[in-house]
Design brief:
Length: 331
Amino acid sequence: MTTASLDVIAVGNAIVDIIGRCDDAFLARHGAAKGSMRLVDAAAVVALYKDMGPAIEISGGSAANTMVGVASLGGTSAFIGKVADDEFGRIFAHDIKSARVAFDTQPAKGGAPTARSLILVTPDGERTMNTFLGVSPELTVAEIDSQQIAAAKIVYLEGYLFDRDEAKAAFRQAAAHAAKAGRKVALSLSDSFCVDRHRAEFLDFIRGHVDILFANEAEVTSLYQSKSFDEAATHAARDCKVAVLTRSAKGAVIHTGSSSVTVPADAVSSVVDTTGAGDLYAAGFLFGHARGLDMTTCGRLGALAAAEIISHVGARPQTSLATLAKARELI
């Protein structure tokens, strides 16, 4: 097996996040269920954008956020995702490269525009996502390069991308390349609504290809249609080598076969915006796992990264995660 030059490479939706504040009445007016992620068409995203107040625009997407987190911890990461040759596509490419994440996917010309997600943050810090996927889910096997995949210790796949057959084929291609190169495959379930849409296919993919599963409490109970978290966790531990199950303020439970560890959440003075909390938890864990750290330390790195993210608006670290981790003697 050749030596990996990257800690993690991710395959996911390339999205420009447009983050703004609103109240519950705004969500009700636009029919958006608080705390959820919904897919919207071009007309809906234009109407929301017109009605919302001042916003921050930055490259986003769940797996892309995770790769930025890995880089902030001092790791090496890369991202595969599809953008268009338009203004938002150039914003995405510039932002992710400036965060020291390798991004070489060529932009598409003459088709659908770059994806964007209008993220509405209510005063309690809860985020509601309204996502127009644009060209992003048109990622195909042609964008999955075997040498890129083999260059990373871990290949991280974003469940949100599972909504088109072409993207599913890209997932399977990436997993096949990873297996051939002796690399690990990680999957984030992304959202309980995403799980509801693809439950059977997710289970098949997890049981056949996934080494590391990331899911929150709602996602894992939906996946197994379980009445309790403990029941769902037992199933997850059976189906993959490592199951990283997050429970917000309750912390996370990490299962490795018949053993498990519980890692508490980091305390924060106030929750400002939960956007990206799961993405950054995955970043901390994946960085630690790629560097050979024990499960508890991996979980603590995830908790540290998630706490930094929810303390401010936006899904990208505002403080070096490496600096924070070194101060805690985690790395």
